[in-house]
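Researcher: Let's continue the batch. This sequence belongs to Glutamyl-tRNA reductase, and it's 461 residues. Same format as the previous ones, please.
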Amino acid sequence: MMQATGVVTGISVSHSSASVDDVARAGADDQRAEVANLIAKPYVSEAFALHTCNRTEAFVVTDDAAVGRAAFETFAPHVDDDSIRYLDHEESLEHLMRVAAGLESLVLGEDQILGQVRTAYEDARGEDGIGPMLEDAVTKAIHVGERVRTETEINEGIVSLGSAAATVAVNDLGVDDPTALVIGAGEMGTTAVKALADRGITDMIVANRTVPHAEHLANEVDADASAVPLQGLDTVARRADLVVSTTASEEPVISAEPFEHGGKTVVVDLAQPRDVDPSVADLDDVTVYDLDTLTSVTEQTRRQRRAAAAEAKRIIDAEFDRLLDQYKRKRADEVIAAMYESADRVKSQEISTAISQLEAETDGELTAGEREVVESMADALVNKLLAPPTRSLREAAGEDDWTTINTALQLFDPEFDGEAYPPFPDGVDPSELPDALAEISPGELPDEVPDEIVESVLSDD
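Model: Same format as before. Here are the structure tokens for Glutamyl-tRNA reductase:
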């Protein structure tokens, strides 16, 4: 059984410090592949990854923070260090809540990220990456995201990149009865189509690799919307006044040629990697917006939602404290379980000895009732003797009194070696670990491990 203890370590490459291209260069091809890569690394017991258009992040559970950070050694080899953020245990837990609540999104409070976190959770489960630690952390983050959207107005107004794209395009275009082309019928494309329809765009074209998906989306909105395959993209782009592109293509799907004589056109590129060839931005009559240039819209939204964000932060603070208490209770329960298991072993031995002695003195076997009396007495003694230390251990965990926890483990767990958080699991040669750990000597704790994690004692070697 996996123990509900360990250290969560995270890494993030997101819009807050990195460009769209940096986000695209980080991590594996998708979040399932990322989880599979991480869970296969030595000493990583759990893994979770989140890939969206404006963030690539991953989290692992290990026995040691330095080992966790070393697991990300190849996560973003072609991204500048300034664009990478490393997260320690508590930072990772709080960051997941902030992400699910929409506080870390390019558009503050957008709804789409909560669904993306849910999908990432299911993907990680599918790769056996979710264990006791991340189960609590990610489900708590999802719960926080739901609370924030129910109890605050954080998602009022512009709540997604698709909505932001529609706002920018319509406001900048200044054309009566424009024709809109949306490329991609996934989640982002769906949001963009609906947002454009909400802003009065009645003439729309949805282009998608799978035409039935595009037709389904076109039929969902109250507009004159039609569907075309991607092969016909250049033809329909020539008559579009605004274009929103949201595909998952590895190469640009929009070239400059369709816009060279098309008049004033607004193009919004929400894809990652980019859908729009850079040469499109050089055309005089074309204005191109991408994820890096939606800042003005998002800043306005941030100002409008500042009060709601403050309320969301209070929810996060309260739920964060509950999560830490939840982990502490689990750690205490593991120590208590070890204590009772040790007592049960002694109890069983002594019951067997007592019954053997009684049967020898009476020259006959004890009846079932007599055996029950002996066993009940032993159970009562164990329960009464362990009740006070059980209370003390729970209080000790609540007060971060890990000295008491250590002592209990040394007394009751025969496999406990006296080191609550050894820097390396048994049998590990530090010279064989990644470069990030090369300078750590056996028996020394790395400086970057926070005190509260160093004192966490219930990780299983």
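Researcher: Any comment?
Model: The longest strand covers residues 7-14.
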